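call fold(seq) -> tokens
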Amino acid sequence: MAGVVEVLHARFPSHAYPMHAHDAWTLLLVDDGAVRYDLDRHERGAFGDVVTLLPPKVPHNGTGANGHGFRKRVLYLSPEQLPERLIGASVDAPALIDPGLHRMISSVHRLLRSPGDSPMATELLAVSLERLRVRLAAHPVPPPDASAARTLRDLLEAHLVPGISLADASSRLHFAPAHLVRSFRREYGMTPHQYVISRRVDLARRLIVSGHPLPSVALRSGFYDQPHLIRHFKRILGTTPRTFQSPASVRP
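ret:
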């Protein structure tokens, strides 16, 4: 995914990291146990619902607190994902208590396991990064923009099957990615990717009714593969494509 250098899921029963540094931002969740680490000659901790952000090229170490192990998930983000001027703020306060942010980052990890859901992961990461910038820089978030949402919807419709990335949409419409996602959700009650998925299911439904063979429907309607189509088709319409194809099925 653009902007993500590496994803790490790990359990360490006893390993202790020595002092080291990364060239990326380290966005850390600790799912079990707790981590004690030193950053800029200060002792810090990561545990529970705390979101930890460690800046690039600032040395730190890490070990399980109280001699116990830990389980963690990490997104290593390319340096340009956050402004360099925020390095000092993240050194001073690397631990963020923000349940909403924690849930979004956790969802990014879950969605990255499924290639077809990477656009949703991209949207959540964009909003998460905006939230990090606001927390670290104490800047207000610009209000949602209905015109940006409507323009984005038109762009999504024009690229329904091939799709368009959030980065490309942002470049074309001259709005920040997170601003587009927030504006769209405020205007339509769903994220851009959720809208695209719902419209692709609608297209798949029409293709099935028109007699297209099921193996070709997924690609013709823009889904990653057949399981991706089946999962979302059933979630939205309450039945599988094959059942829907049956003449005996009841179609709303």
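Residues 118-137 form the longest helix (20 residues).
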